[in-house]
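Quick one, tokens below. Sequence please?
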């Protein structure tokens, strides 16, 4: 049964694939026949995802990396590229936040949020894009958030980072279009993962959101792999600099 074109045999790096949305994306890419590299702080979780991928007959390699550490990112990217024979795709998925009104936060928290959600994807993109440009082909999909498109109370600095990822992706999409590289953004709405449950320990926010979302449910990790796999494939070769919300209709953009 053919899947999206060009994924079978390609090598794709996914950050934050030890959990949630990233794990679902990484497993799907394995099902599409890709060689999958995982960069995550949580090596045990990354290995559990890699085992799932090996279970569908694909190759997976995991690396314990903090994406805010540029040197560690570069050495893991180099190791993956060498073992996989290059890198054709990148999914910037790792992210982190704690819920707090802006006036109750301080510069120490802002710096941590920016290091992970903005500097992290810049570090990984910088390490990967040079190799893609040299090869004359590449696909980058970054997982932002509708917090960065429409705002979200309690997530101001995280939202600023996600809005930054949108602007960054559009700008580099223009710079690298002629080198065969596309950059697109998938923007999830509220999704049932450890990150969201940490944000909403009592479950009250989830109930309120379920009433507000036109499809009357939170997102699930399985809602994302299809669009990400498509944007990484040859089928999406003429699509770049775009942002797509996947949110059960909670946010609709013209
Ligand atoms: N869950 C939601 O409601 C929601 C909504 C919008 C956007 N998102 C975005 O989706 C992406 C995935 O989130 P999730 O909900 O699956 O979260 P999750 O907490 O389940 O998974 C995040 C993964 O990122 C890894 N990670 C965190 N910091 C890292 C670092 N510094 N270096 C390397 N790895 C790191 C974690 O170990 C974890 O495996 C994130 O970018 C998040 O911002 C999530």
């Amino acid at each position: 049964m053919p899947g999206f074109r060009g994924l079978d045999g390609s090598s794709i790096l996914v950050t934050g694939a030890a959990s949630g949305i990233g794990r679902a994306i990484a497993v799907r890419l394995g099902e599409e026949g890709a060689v999958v590299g995982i960069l995550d702080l949580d090596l045990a979780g990354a290995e559990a995802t890699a085992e799932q991928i090996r279970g569908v007959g694909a190759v997976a390699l995991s690396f314990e990396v903090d994406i805010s550490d540029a040197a560690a990112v570069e050495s893991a990217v180099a190791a993956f590229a060498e073992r996989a024979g290059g890198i054709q795709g990148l999914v910037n998925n790792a992210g982190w936040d704690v819920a707090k009104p802006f006036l109750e936060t301080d510069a120490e928290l802002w710096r941590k949020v920016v290091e992970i959600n903005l500097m992290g994807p810049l570090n990984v993109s910088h390490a990967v894009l040079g190799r893609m440009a040299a090869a004359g082909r590449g696909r980058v999909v970054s997982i932002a958030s509708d917090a960065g498109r429409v705002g979200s109370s309690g997530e101001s600095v995280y939202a600023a980072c996600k809005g930054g990822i949108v602007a960054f992706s559009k700008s580099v999409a223009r710079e690298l279009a002629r080198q065969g590289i596309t950059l697109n953004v998938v923007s999830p709405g509220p999704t049932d993962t450890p990150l969201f449950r940490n944000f909403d320990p009592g479950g009250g926010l989830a109930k309120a959101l379920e009433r507000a979302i036109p499809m009357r449910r939170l997102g699930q990790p399985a809602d994302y792999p299809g669009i990400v796999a498509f944007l990484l494939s040859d089928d999406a070769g003429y699509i770049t600099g775009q942002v797509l919300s996947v949110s059960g209709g909670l946010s609709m953009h013209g």
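DSSP finds nine helices and seven strands in the chain. The first strand starts at residue 11 and ends at 15.
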